[in-house]
Amino acid sequence: MLIYFQIITNLLMPIAAGALYLACFFFSRMQGSKRLKYFNLFLLSFTIYLILRPIQLGLGAHPYPLWVCLFRHFLLDAVCAPLAFLALCAFSESVSKQKITKAFVAGSVLGGFYCVMNFLGTDSSYVLLDLGPLQFHDNYTPSNHAPYYGRELTTLTQCLVATIFFIVPSINCLKKSELKQTSQLLFAKGLLLFGLAYLMGTFYHLWGLYYLAAAVSAILLSKANYDDIQQIKNNAKQAADLIRNELVNSLLRSQGNENKLKELFKFIGLEKSPKHFVILECSTDSNKGDFQRECLNHIDKDERSKLYQVFSMTDDSFGLACGDFSKKELADFAESLRQKLRTHKVSIGVSTRLHSLCEAYRESLVALNRAKELGGDIVVIFTPLRDLSEFGTSLIDQQNKLIQLIFESRREEIDQQVNDYIKNLTRNCKMNLFKMKLNLQGIPVLITKSCIDKNISPEDILKCEEQQTIALLEVKEIDELTLWLSKTIKFYLNIIRDSMQKPEHSQIKRVKEYVQEKFREPISLEDAASIACLSASHFRRVFKKECGESFNQFLTTYRIDASKDFLKNPKYSISDIAYEVGFKDSNYFSTVFRKSQNISPRDYRNNVLKS
Q1: Among 300, 308, 363, 524, which one is least packed by beta carbons within 10 Å?
Q2: pLDDT tens figures, 236-252
């Protein structure tokens, strides 16, 4: 029986525990978290420590078992124990270089002291197992006679290692009541179990006890780190979702560059940009996540394939960016959602615009506001006049003519055109007030778009559009529609007049301020167009019209003017000046300067210095 016990405790259990630690090491490495580097190194080094036990016994008689024993225990004290301690610390804090140094120095001192005492006190070996042709030798325990007292000192050293690196840190961790990370608590329990088993095994020479504890600890430690990895991944996903939502909302709300918005949708995994927006808002008390989750559960498989993106907006609202829905399908989809969410009082705003993403998003918000104005639990679909083809082209022609008259400020003709337009609309809609209001709601949007296209500052325009849209909702009689449209046009005329009296459009002013600040850096036409919130081609035309020169000419002139100040100071070389004003090549700078000023930079400097 003793032979079997020795085989199990000295051969099979170290190999089994080492194999388990090695498996945990490969599993942990696949997670790819830098946070686990100390734990991974601990697993690998402790695997080596365990596997070397049967090798130590099988190498033969003294001194070979002694050399392997010394290596194993120095590895345990100087490497494994500090790594386990640092892995525990890494859960709740960043591990400083000072703490790393202290841990390895302490472990090395204890490990070195153990090796010295063991080496000086051990002078022979004995046969631990005799299996016929195979004999396994182990060291005699260090002498307990003066002057070394090796047995007591090596035992004391290993007890100190167990206490300092395993037991005390684990107990301190478990005593922290504010610690909520179950993964860290589980890790601490695993280290505490091994530390206590190692302490008792060393004191009573029960090696099999801490080999068994090592196997159990490996499972606990790996489970703790697996839970920690999953938590890190969940946190990263939540952070990525939050950043994505904020980016989408920010670009949509700011009427951002359309190309940048499409690139963002492509970046977050969408092959095509969305075409429609559906925005839902719950006015009853409910958890944001529950409301959104319940809504998504009501969407069938075919509809889900057309939902490109779900993004949170506020605590009680979220948006759906949709793809290939027809207008009828989109209306049916929104209405079915409202019916399925009867337990909540839900307002739904929908935009069927196919022009720009920013417009579609903004119009879905307008539709949502209308739904709330009407008392909620309703779907409002924003459908501008140009999308209502069943009314023919005569209304669209009149509408375009009306917008043209507005921008030409032909007030006398505007009044007549308004009356003709309302009469035609009344006839086409067969005196249906709802249909007439549905058509008229597109007028402010189209005037706003035309204003923005003509480089008029959008702040006042958008405010006017919102006010007039709300005013339209309050109209109760057909006779009031003419008055509403006349007031709306009057508001827009005043804004256009004020804008035309400004010496410079705000977009161009922003671009010039940007050039003054960043002229030392590379600035492209696309960069400037983005600052102005315009397309590159539109910006090129607007800048030329406003400033009398192209943007590139303006930028070059500004840089040349800036270089003149530098040329007055002889401490700057021509190459330095070229770099300071945004030219990356001094020869090109000289060529541009000569072409602009009919003199080279060097001659210009000489003339200035002489004068």
Answers
A1: 300
A2: 666 666 666 666 666 66
